[in-house]
Every structure is written in C-alpha cells, then in structure tokens.
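Dear H.,

Thanks for agreeing to be a second pair of eyes. The structure we're designing against is below in token form, covering all 522 positions.
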C-alpha cells in the first residue's frame, strides 16, 4: 500500500474563500481537529503578511500535536536581493515552524509580465530561497505556481525551475494548477513526463475553476504524486480548492492508498461539519461522502432496494466515513419511508398499526397544506413523537409580540417581547434583531439559555421563504424552511401559515426543540 501525505491548506488558501475569516482561536481549533484525524501537514498561513498569522504560529507551537506538522507559507525572495535580506523569508524563520512552503514562478509569462524580471533571475530566486531556508534546517516544499500552464507554454523553462528547487535542497516540489483550468487528461500526461525527472517528493495542488480539482488530484496521485494538497470542504478563492474530504475517501476506500488510518475515516463527516461551523459557511447537503444527502433515498423503488441490499444504491457503507443513511419522507416513499424513519427513532410502528395509518394521513394532510417534510426531517421526527405522545415540550409559550419600527433616519429596528414557562418558571424577555425572526430567535434564546446552555453552540444557517399560492397575493400561505447547525450536525425544520411570522415561529421552535432533544439523547 503506497503512502500518500495529506497536506491541508484550509487555514491559508481556504481562508481566502469569499465570506471566510478565521480568528487565531478558530485556526488553532481547526488545526487540532486536523491533527486528530491524522493530516500530515497543516499550512497555517503566511507569517510575513499579517500579525494574525504570526500570532497563530507562535500559539500553535505551544500545543502538542500528535500527527501533524505545521507549515509556514511564503514566496521566493524578491528580485536582485540576497535571500538573507528578504523580509518575507526572515518572517518565515520567526514562525518557529520546521517546514515551509514557498511559491515561485515557473511560467515565463508571469516572470516577464508580473515579476518584471529576467528568466535567469527568477531561477536564482527559487534556488537562493530554497537553499537559504533548507540551510536553516527547514523542510522546504516548493510550490511551482501555474505549473501546468507553464509546462504547456515553455516546457524547458518550467522544468528548469523545478530542478533549481530540487538541487537547492527542497524536500518536495508541488505542481500547482493555480488557475484551475487544466483538464484531467492534460494533468495525467504532464505528470507522466515529469515524475521520472523528479528525485524528491512530488506534490499536486489543484483549484476548482473547471470543476475538476478532485479528479485532477486523485489522478495525480495515481500517476505517482506523493503529496496531495487541498482544503476541507473545498474552501478557497474563486471556485475553491480541491476538497480533501472526497479525496481522502477516494484514495483510501476506492484506491487503497495509505493516507489516513481506517479508524479515522469515521471522523470525516465530523471534520467536514466542524470546519463548516467554524467557517460560518452553510454545509453542502450534496457533498460527496459527508453531505446530509450523500446517502439519502427518496424514490420508493430505491428505498425498497436499499433496505434489502444497501449496495444496490450506495457506493459504500456511510458508517465508514461517519455518515448515515437517510430515508426521506415524501409522497414518493409512502409508509415505507415513514416506518424506517420511525425505527431510527426507536418508535414501534408497523404497516398495519392504526397509529401508522393515522400518522400517514396527518402527513398527507399537512403536505397538502404546504408542508414539505422531505426538506425538514427534524420537524417530521418531532411530529411523529408528538403524534405518538412520546414527546414533552421543553417550554410553553404564553405569548409574544413583535414590533417593527422605521425611524426618521430610515433605520428599521425589530424587537420581540416574549413570555414563556420553562420548567415551571415564567420567563419574560425582550430582544432586538436584524429582522422580526432574528428578534424572536434572540428573545427565545435569552429566555432559555439559563435552562439549556447548549443552545449557545447552535445557530441558524439558512432561512428560506416560499409563497405557496401566489394568486392570493399578500394573504397567501407561506412556507418557511430553517436550517440550523452545531459543531457536529445540521438539521432542517418547517413552518406553514398565512402569517409569515407564525410560519417562522413554527420552524424556529422546531429547530430549538430538535437541538434540545438531540442533546438530551446523548
């Protein structure tokens, strides 16, 4: 079994994704989780670019990591100066890292048009920088920026850049598809030509601008690359980087490469959700291996088959990667989907049970009114428990009022005033919010936080409103779907009503109560 090293750049390349900004604490927490699953290298940031990255390196050096090596990132020296005088390289030394990745130009277009220097000086920049850092005892990864474009434009020069890094003492050279435009066949062809010429580790770093980053990375490993770079969930600039989650699944489970311990594969779903949570990004339901829909079945034929033999419609056992099979409740699934869902909740139902027929009739009635339980499994779980009298509410609403005020300066404020009974105690709270639903959420949490402190670890990640009968105009019935998530899971809830506030409240309450029920069962 050939060993492949995993190189994660979530904290550096991933943080360049739109809408993502990590604090030092965020970066440390992610690094510690990556270490737990056995990622070999974790690129922490660019110590010469900002104080936050340097603070991360100094703090992570105090932590005990069992499996991972922290890597600093930077560029080759500037043109026409000594490597020892380059501020970027000096900052890398201050990071206290044992490993460093420096990128350099391999494409003659970039050397001439971006660096504005000579081809010879660029080669010297690569050689001097690698030699300087390796001479200080660091393991140096040379990231050959834009390599596939460079090789296509000037094969001789691009190889000359790789050889300069190799001869100067680089531990690895990494071929980068920086623009993300390389076709898989072209990546395979170039690596077949380059691999025999490189005596050190060869790495691959792909971006996803053509939607091929995962395929290109996996094929590169099959063609002999020793290191594969990527980010958790594919976060990164523009269209993102290669997603390490399916890359790990494909390499370990499909191709048999030694990249992560088999027992650690079960943590893939957790790490995917954890990084999504810390990044404040909505978890992709359709993400291969770890998405909520990755092993979801809706059609009756599929459900029937997969319950007889999971291999009929699943490419692997979801438990291998810490995920689970989901049977969606819908008009296409009928009683079967409902019974399977009930079994997962330890509810004793069968097809002939009058309670089953009663719940099915209730579901059909609610779906006729506009409910859509396929998209709101958490609400369906609560519905079944309530219908079977297997559920006790965590709180009772005595009433709420929402006030929306538009002031003379055109600023709009929302305030929710709420009265609840929690464990026999009356709570009367008020809270403001960006809108009426946010105000309700804040007021509800304020009332419940003392009784249920775990609510602080969840948040609403998505809010959707759909008008169900457009012809009714402003009196139309609306459907509200809320997606919530915590560090380990995400779930969806639903509300339907002519009043958008009431529909939102229904979905909001289900979301909170599902979280509390989930925590209670642990």
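And this is the sequence the design step returned. I haven't edited it by hand at all.
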């Amino acid at each position: 079994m050939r060993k492949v090293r995993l190189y994660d750049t979530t904290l550096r390349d991933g943080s360049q994704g739109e809408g993502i900004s990590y604090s030092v604490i965020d970066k440390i927490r992610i690094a510690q989780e990556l270490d737990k699953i056995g990622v070999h290298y974790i690129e922490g940031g660019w110590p010469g670019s900002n104080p936050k990255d340097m603070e991360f390196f100094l703090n992570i050096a105090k932590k005990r990591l069992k499996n991972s090596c922290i890597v600093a990132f930077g560029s080759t020296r500037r043109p026409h100066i000594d490597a020892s005088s380059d501020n970027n390289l000096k900052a890398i030394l201050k990071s206290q890292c044992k490993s460093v990745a420096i990128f350099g130009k391999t494409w003659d277009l970039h050397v001439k048009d971006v660096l504005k220097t000579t081809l010879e000086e660029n080669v010297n920049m690569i050689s001097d920088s690698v030699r300087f850092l390796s001479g200080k005892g660091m393991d140096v990864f040379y990231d050959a920026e834009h390599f596939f474009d460079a090789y296509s434009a000037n094969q001789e020069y691009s190889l000359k850049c790789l050889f300069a890094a190799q001869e100067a003492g680089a531990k690895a050279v990494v071929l980068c598809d920086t623009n993300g435009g390389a076709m898989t066949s072209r990546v395979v062809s170039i690596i077949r030509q380059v691999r025999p010429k490189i005596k050190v580790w060869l790495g691959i770093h792909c971006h996803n601008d053509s939607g091929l980053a995962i395929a290109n990375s996996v094929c590169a490993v099959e063609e002999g690359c020793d290191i594969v770079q990527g980010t958790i969930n594919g976060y990164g600039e523009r269209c993102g980087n290669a997603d390490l989650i399916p890359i790990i699944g494909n390499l370990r489970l499909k191709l048999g490469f030694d990249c992560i311990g088999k027992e650690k594969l079960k943590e893939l779903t957790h790490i995917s959700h954890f990084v999504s949570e810390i990044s404040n990004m909505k978890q992709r339901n359709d993400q291969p291996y770890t998405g909520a829909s990755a092993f979801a079945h809706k059609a009756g034929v599929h459900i029937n088959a997969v319950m007889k033999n999971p291999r009929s419609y699943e490419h692997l056992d979801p438990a291998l990667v810490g995920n689970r099979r989901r049977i969606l409740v819908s008009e296409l699934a009928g009683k079967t989907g409902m019974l399977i869902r009930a079994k997962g909740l330890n509810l004793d139902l069968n097809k002939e049970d009058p309670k089953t027929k009663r719940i099915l009739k209730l579901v059909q009635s609610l779906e006729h009114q506009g409910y859509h339980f396929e998209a709101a499994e958490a609400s369906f779980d609560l519905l079944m428990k309530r219908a079977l009298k297997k559920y006790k509410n965590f709180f009772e609403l005595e009433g709420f009022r929402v006030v929306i005020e538009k002031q003379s300066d055109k600023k709009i404020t929302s305030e929710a005033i709420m009265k609840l009974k929690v464990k026999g105690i009356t709570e009367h709270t008020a809270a403001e919010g960006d809108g009426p639903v946010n105000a309700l959420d804040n007021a509800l949490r304020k009332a419940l936080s003392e009784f249920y402190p775990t609510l602080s670890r969840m948040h609403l990640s998505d809010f959707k409103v759909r008008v169900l009968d457009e012809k009714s105009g402003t009196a139309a019935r609306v459907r509200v779907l809320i997606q919530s998530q915590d560090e380990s899971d995400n779930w969806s809830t639903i509300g339907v009503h002519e009043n958008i506030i009431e529909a939102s409240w229904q979905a909001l309450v289900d979301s909170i109560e599902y979280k509390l029920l989930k925590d209670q069962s642990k």
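Two observations from my side: The mean pLDDT is 90. Residues 5-260 form a domain with the TIM Barrel fold (CATH 3.20.20.70).

Warmly,
E.
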